[in-house]
Design a protein that fits this description.
Blueprint: H1 4-12, H2 18-28, H3 37-48, H4 59-92, H5 100-107, H6 128-139, E1 155-158, E2 168-171, H7 185-200
């Protein structure tokens, strides 16, 4: 099974058939897809200027989409290296019990679904790398009451999500499932109240 880097080489290779280059970009999303496969694909297509169902997109647009994906992946991989080093140091210092960020991080190792968008058509508009930098910053500071991706303050708690965790607060503006460790208990409670209000309306 080809890894991310070999797939990326195929996307860039002008000797490859255009269908293979497009397929290879889609396969990259099996290795790294911050919003989930379908939402990340929709995001990359809209940012690079070709349709999700376009079978023969401009090769330059495919490469532009890959460039954005690779930049975001390098941001996330750097965070994972720092995360692993921090956990190693904590274990060395006797802190064996992982915190809530660690619990969340275990579900997203490798970068798949770190900013999960349950609706593949609703996702942040900014570059993937910028969204991941904001998310990482939120994970490294005290919890707040806003979406780390877009700063939206209207969160609605949803169940039966197509990803683990299967429930959580969803930003009504950008569509990401906001990681619980970045929110205060009050913000989580408010997202549940929003759900009750929505259900009773």
């Amino acid at each position: 099974m080809a890894g991310f880097r070999s797939l990326a080489r195929q996307v860039r290779d002008p000797r490859c058939d255009l269908a293979l280059r497009r397929y290879s970009l889609r396969k990259c999303l099996e290795r790294f897809a911050p919003y989930g496969h379908r939402a990340t694909w929709d995001h990359l297509c809209s940012r690079a200027g070709f349709g999700p169902e376009d079978r023969s997109p401009d090769p330059a647009r495919l490469v532009a989409a890959l460039d954005e994906l690779e930049e975001a992946r390098s941001v996330w991989l750097a965070y994972e290296v720092e995360f692993a080093e921090r956990r190693k140091k904590e274990k060395h210092d006797g802190l064996r019990r992982p915190g809530s960020v660690d619990d969340w991080h275990r579900l997203t190792w490798g970068g798949f679904g770190v900013a999960w968008c349950d609706n593949p058509r609703v996702h942040p508009n900014e570059p993937l790398a910028e969204v991941l930098r904001r998310l990482i910053s939120a994970l490294e500071r005290d919890p707040g009451c806003e979406c780390p991706a877009c700063g939206g303050d209207r969160l609605i708690y949803k169940y039966d999500l197509a990803h683990e965790p299967s429930s959580g607060p969803v930003c009504t503006e950008c569509g990401i499932v906001v990681p619980r460790p970045v929110l205060t208990p009050e913000a989580l409670a408010a997202s549940r109240r929003e759900r009750r209000l929505l259900m009773s309306a």
